[in-house]
Amino acid sequence: MLKGKKIIVGVCGSIAAYKAALLVRQLIKAEAEVQVILTTSASEFITPLTLATLSKRPVLSQFVKDETGVWNNHVDLGLWADAIVVAPASANTVAKFANGFCDNLLSATYLSARCPVFIAPAMDLDMYRHPSVQNNFTRLQGYGNRIIEAGYGELASGLVGQGRMAEPEEIVQVLQNFFSGDTKIV
């Protein structure tokens, strides 16, 4: 179902960023074309080299590629994609998307996209349950985005509760269901 699909994987600053490598690997295995956009804070959790190796494409993180003025065109990226998957999606990025803030390549691409957007949040349980974050999820769903619910379990803080990013297999299944016409979330 994903063969030839052009998928942008947005990776945000979260301990769950290591799961993005597994997600990219599974999407490539499903014969999707994958372009990774890494936020600045995400690069503190996972390297561009890892994601570039798995996606077989350079990882993008900035508007401008180099000092010559060559740039990563967020509009072209948004139009190229058949889907955007943000995994992990931090509370910060969720808030930016919900409120139209556009201070990085990922949020600019999101605002330029005409394709379906899937958001797989990852954050500590108190952040996840906070009314402002829940309101942002509701707002994003109102815009037509699909939230892939965070799982329940032990979190990096040591607390136990909802906030774990969905497993890469679940995210791939959601995408396969969507592109096959079965729009239910796993």
TrEMBL record:
Gene Ontology terms: cellular component: phosphopantothenoylcysteine decarboxylase complex
One GO BP annotation of this record: coenzyme A biosynthetic process
Any one GO molecular function term: FMN binding
Flavoprotein domain mapped to chain residues: 5-176
Gene3D superfamilies: Flavin prenyltransferase-like
InterPro entries: Flavin_trans-like, Flavoprotein
SUPFAM superfamilies in the record: Homo-oligomeric flavin-containing Cys decarboxylases, HFCD (SSF52507)
PANTHER family on file: HOMO-OLIGOMERIC FLAVIN CONTAINING CYS DECARBOXYLASE FAMILY (PTHR14359), PHOSPHOPANTOTHENOYLCYSTEINE DECARBOXYLASE (PTHR14359:SF6)
Name of this protein: Flavoprotein domain-containing protein
Species in which this protein is naturally found: Pontibacter korlensis
